[in-house]
Design brief:
The protein is α+β, with helices and mostly antiparallel strands. The protein has 9 helices and 5 strands. It folds into 3 domains: 76 residues, no CATH class; 100 residues, no CATH class; 77 residues, no CATH class. A hairpin with a 4-residue loop joins β4 and β5. α6 crosses α8.
Length: 288
């Protein structure tokens, strides 16, 4: 055979390109459906597949759609993604953490209402900082980027109890990772022919990280912001802790709104955020 798929006449600009475009289109509108490749309904008139050059198209939004597809984002792929992630980017994940640990001992809720709302989210591992920390591949990199902030906001309080000390030790020496859900922007789709081990690439969307190109976040406060805010004397919660049970809890008498208003006066911070207050609508916008 001229190829490894036992498919007579199969080549890169013909059969391969047609199949790739066919499945990429179907993945855009369906995630699980039986398809008949010999059906006239699926004839592709967009280009000729008998020339020396053909084009494979895929949707740039494929990675985002995959985040909501349980057949794509599995426990295995989530943990694999965590372990491949740059540790410095972990606090930038777009999630609102409810608890520091899986046992829900240390709450990160800044308000009573938020803490009540979190009770309905306990089965989602994205609500726990521990999910990411357990899978950090390079603690030296983490310490270089966030070590000072994490010590001020988290470690200093946890070290006041034997339970907290044990948790910190377990996190850094962990060998049994736990994770229920995760998201990311990097994805590779492949198809298998006749269950053979030779896969065909359908699309490849590389991971990208561009915080300075973010146009607008409205009334949102990332965990990265918590870590930044507790590490600087320029902020109202400098030197405090985001852990709710701490006697030095950052949001006892200070709200996120107070910090955002203060940051509008501080100007551009070390993480590149500028806060501005729109007086006409009385809304606070964080603009990167």
């Amino acid at each position: 055979m001229a190829n490894d798929y036992f498919w007579a006449g199969f080549n890169t600009t013909g059969g391969y390109a047609f199949l790739a475009n066919f499945y990429n289109h179907q993945l855009f509108i369906n995630s699980n459906e039986d398809l008949l490749l010999d059906s006239d309904f699926y004839i592709d008139y967009s280009q000729s597949y008998n020339n020396s050059v053909s084009t494979i198209f895929w949707a740039p939004s494929a990675a985002k759609r995959a985040l909501h597809n349980p057949n794509v984002i599995t426990i295995v792929s989530a943990i694999t993604g965590f372990r491949a992630m740059d540790a410095c980017k972990l606090p930038w994940m777009f999630t609102q953490y409810c608890w520091l640990d899986f046992n829900q001992i240390w709450s990160l809720a800044s308000t009573n209402r938020r803490e009540q709302r979190y009770q309905n989210m306990s089965s989602n591992a994205a609500m726990y900082v521990e999910a990411g920390l357990r899978n950090i591949r390079d603690w030296k990199s983490w310490d270089n980027c966030w070590g000072t902030s994490f010590n001020i906001g988290i470690n200093n309080y946890l070290k006041t109890s034997s339970q907290g000390q044990a948790w910190l030790y377990a996190i850094k020496t962990n060998t049994n990772s736990q994770m229920r859900c995760h998201n990311g922007n990097h994805i590779i789709y492949n198809i298998l022919i006749c269950s053979l081990t030779y896969s065909l690439l359908l699309s490849r969307i590389p991971h990208s990280f561009h915080p300075t190109q973010q146009t607008l976040m409205l009334m949102y406060w990332l965990f990265a912001s918590d870590l930044w805010a507790v590490s600087t004397n320029l902020c109202l919660i400098g030197g405090m802790s985001p852990i709710r049970s701490s006697s030095n809890f950052a949001f006892n008498n200070i709200s996120s709104k107070d910090i955002l208003i203060q940051k509008s006066n501080i100007g551009k911070s070390s993480i590149g955020w500028i806060c501005s207050i729109e007086k006409s609508t009385r809304s606070i916008q964080i603009i990167l």
